[in-house]
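Hi everyone,

Forwarding the result from last night's run.
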Amino acid sequence: MNGPWAMLAEVTHGCPLRCPYCSNPTSLVTKSAELDTATWVRVFNEAAALGVVHVHLSGGEPLLRGDLAEIAAAAASAGIYPQLVTSGVGLTRVRLAELLRAGVRSVQLSTQAADAAASDRIAGRPSFADKQRAAALVVEAGLPLGLNVVLHRHNLDAIDQIVELGITWGAQRIELANIQFYGWGLVNRRALMPTRAQLSAAREKVERWRRRSDVELIWVVPDYFDGTAKPCMGGWGTLSLTVAPDGRVLPCPAAYSLPLELPNVRTHSLEWIWRESAAFNAYRGTSWMSEPCSGCPLRHQDFGGCRCQAFALTGDPGRTDPACSLSPEHHIVRDLTTDQDAEDDGFVYRSFARDAR
């Protein structure tokens, strides 16, 4: 078994925003339970020894960690490329300079829509102006800027304006991430579910932008609409790992919900977790599969689809992902994606961590 090459470091679940599609678990890790700086230093050294070369410093909002520069420096000192994943809220010129000195090499900035009113409504608080300032600071500092936008019923129709915004802000890469229904996104699925017509029109617009612009556009395929299952993180426990704020280690960022005993860096090394733990070996390879996956010629490409999605839709993480047209439960997805009138905008907003930040 080869080691992972990428790592998602969720240094906190605290966040100033309340996005209704947030993939963090609905039971958030509190500040008092977060790993301390010294433990993150050890974790990055162990990750580098395993083969990790790229880390996303994420959350929640990582800027809420007062020791974020020390955490970033630990990753860089271990020989890992650190990227900051941020809402932009709280990013100042001084803070960015500190992170740059610590070794942060690039920034991925999120926005919720192309205009302030829509973005602030989706985020659950005014934040668009903070994002605009943050983008300008990143470009001024000479760091590569990526823009991430989660797409759903309430912003898909503005895809042209979203791309134009990213270009105006100086983004080199724009990730158009169609909604994935985990965590708070699953709670708000009815309100966020796009229509097929919206997706079709947006996809055509993206293709037109690719023909006319040099900016890199990443179109993350929506889970429920194409009748094909996405490979679970490139294969369960094969390419990357996620370290939660409290030290739990996950084979994918959404695995909080699965009926697995998640190992923890407080009690085990990353080496043992990656190679020996039951959680990381649960769905590796194909021996765990039942039909129709076990006999499918695509089983080494899609790995039966997403385990978290299979669990969310069927209650059994070992089932074929219902997003696949060959799944016996594919009717669940067909029913969910039947076009309907737009739902009321009454989101269930993401909660804050329970103790003060």
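The chain has a mean pLDDT of 93.

Cheers,
N.
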